[in-house]
Automatic annotation (TrEMBL):
Signal peptide: none annotated. It comes from Xanthobacter flavus. This is YjbR protein. InterPro entries: YjbR-like_sf, YjbR/MT2646/Rv2570-like. It holds the Pfam family YjbR. SUPFAM superfamilies: YjbR-like. Residues 100-120 are annotated as: Disordered.
Length: 120
């Protein structure tokens, strides 16, 4: 049932454009745009950078493993995951959800004007 720190790192770094770097006393997993998760120094907890809706979803679905981070970060959506109580499939889903929120936004291509629009 538990997921160890090595498995968390493997799962997080398998996501597109994910990298790892130090972040205060934790290890941060990030996209080129921003951090999507941080692993605690003990390797027993992971903070996921969710929005409030995702925070509520995971906290309701698996309340033993997920809880809002105390304070302002939690109010914004940051969610603590107890790695001793979460299964790999649920954690993979949570990491993917946090990663999607942190992924670079796709640039929209400028709309090409047709000849008839140019003549207007």
């Amino acid at each position: 049932m538990a997921v160890d720190a090595a498995r968390v790192r493997e799962m997080a770094l398998a996501l597109p454009e994910a990298s790892e770097a130090p972040h205060v006393d934790r290890r941060a997993f990030r996209t080129p745009r921003k951090i999507f998760a941080t692993l605690g120094p003990s390797g027993l907890d992971l903070n996921l950078m969710f929005d409030p809706d995702l925070r509520d979803f995971y906290c309701e679905q698996v309340p033993d493993a997920f809880a809002p981070v105390p304070g302002g970060w939690g109010r914004m959506g940051a969610t603590r995951c107890d790695l001793t109580l979460v299964d790999a499939a649920t954690l993979a889903s949570a990491l993917q959800a946090a990663h999607r929120l942190a992924a670079p936004k796709a640039k929209s291509k400028p709309k090409r004007r047709t000849a008839s629009e140019s003549e207007s």
